Amino acid sequence: MYLDFYGFKEKPFNITPNPRFIYLSKTHKEVFAHLLYGIQDQCGFIAVTGEVGTGKTTVLRTLLGELEDETYRLAFIFNPCLSALDLLRSINREYGIEWELDSPAELIRMLNEFLLEQKTAGKIVVLVIDEAQNLDPAVLEQIRLLSNLETDTDKLIQIVLVGQPELGELLSRPDLRQLNQRVTVRYHLDTMDFADTCDYIRHRLRIAGGADQEVFPTATVKRIYRFSSGLPRLINILCSRALLIGYADGCRQISPRMVAAAISELGQTRKSFFGRLFGALLS
Prior knowledge:
Elements: H1 3-6, H2 26-40, E1 45-50, H3 56-66, E2 72-77, H4 84-94, H5 104-120, E3 124-129, H6 137-146, E4 158-163, H7 166-171, H8 177-182, E5 183-189, H9 194-208, H10 218-228, H11 232-249, H12 256-266, H13 273-282
Parallel strand pairs: 1-4, 1-5, 2-3, 3-4
Helix pairs in contact: 4-5, 9-10, 10-12, 11-12, 11-13
């Protein structure tokens, strides 16, 4: 609707994760480094946590896109609301090995054979489970057992658990202490500060084709930052709504007043941080 008006080639503030638009803030660079270290050093278990909308999935997609096929075999589980058996089936299916079995022991045997073949071929096998805070403790225990698939010197599979802060609470349960002790690399992805928020907005405008326009001046970004607390997804939602208001008003530069109007439309001015986010997502 407003692409031609602002001179964009595509929408700059979609909330769908897109590695092309990724901006690595200070915290994103740190989590990137932790993930690379944990995978390349074959640490076994890696846990990454962060609030809703901080960019965990986008970072993961970008990281996995950069891992060379000649060196890595990757599997990505997006839906962790599975039984232990269904999770094993999903893992085997992702790796292209036998999965239509009803026996967990047989599924693990097939997976172990695959892992040994990959080890012989010099490849690192990586399993990423997103939204891991939704895993049932019994399923997490099954995942822990997968870490027993190892040689005398190396873990045969690198398991990355990614989720909201509740994942950390889940791992701290007494009945999951064996798994918690095996997590050797951990990182909590925080929200962006004001400087990163400014750069984030400019970056997305540039990728969308609006590099030469001062669409969001500093005063406007300050208003966006105060409302969003540096949460990327909420920044996207607010900026997108503000652009629509600017388009309707015939203004190519977004003012703090337009941002205030966008916030008012979202109806979230006095709600909590999470209330703001979920209200915006549902609007």
